[in-house]
Amino acid sequence: MTTRQWKPIRAFEEILFEEYNGIAKITINRPRYRNAFTPKTTLELSQAFAICRELQRIRVVLLTGAGDKAFCSGGDMHVKGRGGYIDEEGVPRLSVLDVQMQIRRLPKPVIAMVNGYAIGGGHVLHLVCDLTIASENAIFGQTGPKVGSFDAGFGASYLARMVGQKKAREIWFLCRQYSAQEAERMGMVNKVVPFDQLEDECVAWAEEMMERSPIALRMIKAGLNAELDGQAGIQQLAGDATMLYYFLDEAQEGGKAFLEKRKPDFDKYPQIP
Ligand code: S0N
Question: pLDDT (tens digit, 9 = 90+) per residue, 196-232?
Fold first, then answer.
């Protein structure tokens, strides 16, 4: 195992947020509770992912949990109340849904570095990451129908796209736990490695992706999402296409012509068949 100097990006209370060589690492830091998330954790995750989007030097994000027992065990049952997970002001929240959307919409690859249990809402968090690399001790599963919750959004439909309808129903209806190897065979884990090689493997995958064209990866991610996300997915892909269009002289000509109060001359640009 290589020892890396992860440098803090910003201090939070329930997560760690660090960087190394263009890679951000976000660690849910509540090992005492198997890294269950509270509304504060999800707020901090949201803020960290927003920063990852803004920081140009960050090219890939790793999401993980502290310790060697859990990636994330879902919503913290201690604060589960009527209407959601109760924050410090007494407001019920289901804000992990916003984090799921942020991970899907982040125009950079996100790797779930699954170092133990990925259970309940923690399982959905790994699902929505672009890639999952798991240690041999990782265990996967949904518990909702056993503990009085469910995620019928990405947690159901995206899971079914990944493992098939029958298997997705089995995972949710029976609430069983699956080994890392089983999860890999089902298609929801890219690679399983010994625990002490997990971070090295994730960093190696991140560094390999960083040798690829960032815009190509961004467009592929948007395209893969668009197929599943309907108009919201198309909006993201279309937004990326617009960004690229704005780099063209043809697009600049339209704006320039308007400001110069003349007719735009689009004929001078190549019309590629
Ligand atoms: C993870 C498990 C399997 C680990 O078992 P293990 O190793 O035997 O440890 P334990 O002794 O059970 O746990 C150690 C300590 O950690 C506490 N703890 C564990 N998980 C949680 C948790 N989720 N919340 C609070 N505390 C937790 C234990 O209580 C124990 O503490 P002590 O030492 O004091 O006894 C095992 O722990 C387990 O099965 N955990 C529960 C997993 C689970 O059911 N999670 C699902 C929670 N629900 C969701 O995630 C639903 C998500 C949701 O609500 C949602 C749905 C749709 C849209 C939005 C949302 C949203 O969340 O916003």
Answer: 999 999 999 999 999 999 999 999 999 999 999 999 9
Q: State whether ipTM is beyond 0.85.
A: yes
Give CA–CA dist 273/270, Å, rounded: 9
What does the block give as tokens for 186?
A: 């089902």
Packing angle, helices 96-105 and 214-245, rounded to 10? 90
Distance 32 CA to ligand 1 centre (A): 11
Instruction: Compute, in angstroms, the gap from residue 8 CA to the centroid of ligand 1.
Output: 28
For ligand 1, residues with CB inside 6 Å are 33-34, 36, 69-70, 73-78, 85, 94, 96-97, 117, 119-121, 143-144, 147, 149, 151
Whether this prediction's pTM lies above 0.95 is answered by: yes
